[in-house]
Amino acid sequence: MLNGIEMKTLLTSRNAHGAVKNYFDKSIGKKGMKRLVIDNYESLHITDSDLCAAIRGLIKNEEYAAEFDWVTILDKSGNLIDVIRK
Fold first, then answer.
1. Pair 55, 84: CB distance under 8 Å
2. Report field, pTM of the whole predicted structure over 0.90
3. How far apart are CA 13 and CA 63, in angstroms?
4. How many CB atoms lie under 10 A from the CB of residue 16?
């Protein structure tokens, strides 16, 4: 983690929901984390829209909603897109 930004990279995952849940679970409780960025730029199997849908679906879980105020993706075009920003 650098400057409060936790970066996770998708590459070979085929299941957006499972990958995001795994990243959320591994990032919960990290001190000083302000923003979680999920890099989908080089993902071989997951579309940006599937990744965003997985994030929006999982953030409905109370545990995740309480923990993550700012979740961003690095999309296939190289743009940073805020999916969740409270």
1. yes
2. yes
3. 23
4. 25
Residue 2: what pLDDT?
72
pLDDT tens figures, 11-62: 999 999 999 999 999 999 999 999 999 999 999 999 999 999 999 999 999 9
What's the CATH number of domain 5-85, 3.20.20.150, 3.30.310.50, 3.40.1350.120, 3.40.50.720?
A: 3.40.1350.120
Q: How far apart are CA 74 and CA 36, in angstroms?
A: 11
Residue recorded with tokens 């989908």: 40
Question: For the chain, what's the residue count?
Answer: 86
Cα pseudo-dihedral 57, 58, 62, 67, rounded to 10:
-130
Site of tokens 């897109």? 81
Specify whether the CB–CB gap between 70 and 82 falls below 8 A.
yes
Residue 30 is predicted with a pLDDT of 93
